[in-house]
Amino acid sequence: MLYTQVHLTLPAWVHEFVDTTKTYEGDDAKVRLAIELSGRNVEAVSGGPFGAAVFDGNDRIVAVGVNRVVPHSCSVAHAEMMAYMLAQQRMQRFRLNEDGGHFTLATSSQPCCQCYGATVWAGVDTLLIGARASDVEELTTFDEGPLPADWVGELVRRGIAVRTDILRDEAREVLRHYGEIGAAY
Hints:
Layout: H1 13-17, H2 27-43, E1 51-55, E2 61-66, H3 69-72, H4 79-91, E3 104-109, H5 113-122, E4 126-131, H6 133-139, H7 151-157, E5 161-163, H8 168-181
Parallel strand pairs: 3-4, 4-5
Antiparallel strand pairs: 1-2, 1-3
Helix pairs in contact: 2-8, 4-5
């Protein structure tokens, strides 16, 4: 039988865990949410140790994502990809900032090569990152894939501001825990 649709979902706990009425002012608050999502995903055994959130120009959540690769048998179900797809569906446009609005992606860890590519096209203006790709590879068995040597510069040239190492130690702790328990989800 030929499959003609894909159905990806976030775990049910997200509805109770995320406060969509809250304003997330400042980089730390946004990245902290992404890190908390990554930790909860590990605790709930609902996916890998990665979380992400898209925010609008008013510091409000548009969408969140957590890693769902193993539960959905889908290599593109990374936290950033889930957040982008859900934000795009909510806004009903494939390029979030096409109307001039400002959108930010906060992620618990530096985007892998796949999520980096999606960031180029998703229509975000700012990328906020917790842990580095080197942290992910040091503390877990994940391969983050190849990126351009000047990946930050490439995003900046495309109008995407990049800020790294935000709450890096907190993000590394989730990765460390995941790596120590030897999880494979």
